[in-house]
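Rotation project, supervised by the postdoc (A.L.). Task for the rotation student: set up a whole-complex structure prediction and record inputs and outputs verbatim in this book. Inputs entered:
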Amino acid sequence: MTRGTLIYIVQRLAIIVLTLLVVSFVVFVVVHALPGNAFISQRVHGRSLQLLLHEYGLDQPVLIQYWNFLKGAIHGDLGVSLYIRGEQVTPLVLRELSVSCELGGAALIVTIGLGMTFGVLAAIRQNTWVDYLLTTLAVVGYTVPSFVIAGLGIMIFANFLGSVTGGAIAYSPVWTGTYGTIGELWLPALSIGLYTSGQITRITRASMLEVIQQDYIRTARAKGLREWVVTLRHALRNALVPVISILGTTVVGILVGVLVIENIFGIPGLGKEFVESILQHDYNVTVGVFTIFALLIGLSNLAVDLIYTVVDPRIRY
Amino acid sequence: MAIPAGPWLEYEGGTLARQQVGLWRDGLRRLRRNRLALAAVVYLGLLACVCVVSLFWTPYNPNLVGACPTYALPGTPGHPLGCDDLGRDLISRLMVGSQVSLAVGLITAAIVVVLGVSVGLLIGYVRGVVDAAFALVINVFYGVPPLMIAIVLYVLLGPGLINIIIAIAASSWMDMARLVRGQTMSIREREFIEAARAGGARTGKILFGHIFPNALGPIIVQTTYVVPAAILTSAFFSFLGFGVPAPQADWGGMASEGFSPLLAGFDPYILLWPAIALSVTLLAFNFFGDGLRDAFDPRQRR
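Outputs recorded:
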């Protein structure tokens, strides 16, 4: 790691911190401007409502509330939940983050695994039925909404296969524990991953096609190397750079997928919490989830940029 | 040997000067050759017809509870697509649902184009502090998924179709602005802009009369991707429970209503029809967009 890289990382971290500040501030102000408050659905009125508002500091001006939030956030304390009164937000959000990371990680594996395999296959079988099938699949993957894929999956694997085999091979579509087993995880992960893998397939295919035509590939073939060695070791390695450049976008796509899919399968992660916290006006949780998402995206983008320099040593910062 | 002049020489002639045609004629000619895009156009035309018809007539009142037996299967006499859990006719609801999708897609795209193009042109032309500020805003904006921003905005604005459109447009105009900014920055350095400026043209005239027409190709292409993206976002909205108010039918909301019967293990059709309608419409817009990209922006062909 050179000095330039270090300076670059520090700069990027500064931008991430700035982003976190702006995002949390805007969301904080907007969420507090929502009509109604967290205690309405709890049937608290009059004097007791005033006392509650005072206890949680909600009767102060928004800017002062934000300042207090910020003072806590610096120490890693995102405040307390207003809906489940007294529940600390930080441990809550971190626990849900681990659940979402399990799902998102599985989706990322699906994305990269399917996307790169399909992309490479489509490229080396260019203009055959394999190519047409895989590219069509990629287009369908990134146009069809993830909840449709989830619905079709439940239809086929839970209902149809379940009734045909008399329940011997049945997929249970509802998450039972905090963390999913592989049996529960694969369909949600696939629903998210098909969307993002479509993009990866397209990029991998295009980039492979470009690389395959180059002279050094012909040289490698002329040396008598086996075709799969040429494809995987020589061509794919150089075709990786554009693929990695869109991994940042992929992460955002997976997070959006997590947001939707968690609400279908009843997965107790950040996406489900985000929707619930908004509906419940649970200010601190909403801001907490937003902050975590922004942090995730910022860090993964930084990671992508750093992987970039490893894959292609010509790129320096 | 006399070589007949004609537009087909464009790909074979090489050095021969091709017949001069304008952007629109050139693009339409290339679009006509793309069968997939043509099929998409035909489908979208049909969809537009269905949407217009549904404004005046549907087989049943789409919001009438008990129009037919609950969970009637497809093929029930008088109800070709069956009925939902409240006994509402699904084909009527499906027809009406197209209104929300098309309205969100097209109006959002219109707002995004107007806003994105104006801001992009201005920032690309003025540069300096404004550009730096814009870059900062974009950096922050790309730090969170646009869907989350749109949801929070929508909850703030309150329920209603107009507010869905505003929320989605506000969270998706920046891509367009960024594209136009980049185009403007490269076009403004060209000689004909210098000539226009030397000729005394005002800034407004240079922006909209000279730079805008030359950036039109990429703008059209980007617009065709804004439409399906907006429809998809609005479907996610309805699906998560932030859609148009209750009795109004829309595809995302219908799909969402279809999930509980599906999870209970019966009647997948309530989910299936809106899912198919939504997917085919999104595919059609994407194919149309790909066709347009190949037609208007051949350099970007993937």
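Student's summary: Residues 89-311 of chain A form a domain with the MetI-like fold fold (CATH 1.10.3720.10).
Supervisor addendum: Chain A has twelve helices and no strands.
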